User: What shape does this take?
Amino acid sequence: MANPRLRALAWWKKFTKEDIVLAAVGLALIILSFSFLFKSSPKNTASTFALSSELVELTLLRSAKDRGAFCLDGSLPGYHFEKGFGSGSSNWVLHIEGGGWCDSIASCLSRKTTALGSSHHMELQVQFSGILSHDSTLNPDFFNWNKVKLRYCDGASFAGNPESEFHNGTNLFFRGQLIWEAFMDELLAMGMSNASRDALLVGLQL
Assistant: This one.
């Protein structure tokens, strides 16, 4: 039986120097292509993500304290706003954050330590994407509208009022109705009262 090593050597000798050079060049090109692909993919992904979303600052309601419009823990409610431009400068998209209800003292007390019950735990910036994106290729209908994300922190779908609060030392504020009224007054003062065409209310189920 022929030695396997000798057979391999005989097979290799069939190739000329030109064949070996061409094979080496081809292998180098393949390696270079894969290297470029892996290096460029994260950058392209990051670039696409940057176009599809943008960070928007949290704004606390200026009039909330005087009106007694507080989150569950007594902190001021907040929203994120991006000003419209061009043909969309008089149109508004209001996005209401979802989060369900807290339906017991225990669950509401627990919620006080989260963004759904306290602005102290809300992100200072959020990404505007989807219907809130400013990218005209991804959001052609609303990209240049005034866009607002209303943060939800009262635990009762903006329906609570001081009369519904518990006075047993739990320090829970159910002021959703007052928060909603304060939101609307502030947005109207910012220009929503001059909406010439449309004001769209969207959001998750509360």
Summary: Residues 49 and 177 are 36 Å apart (CA to CA).
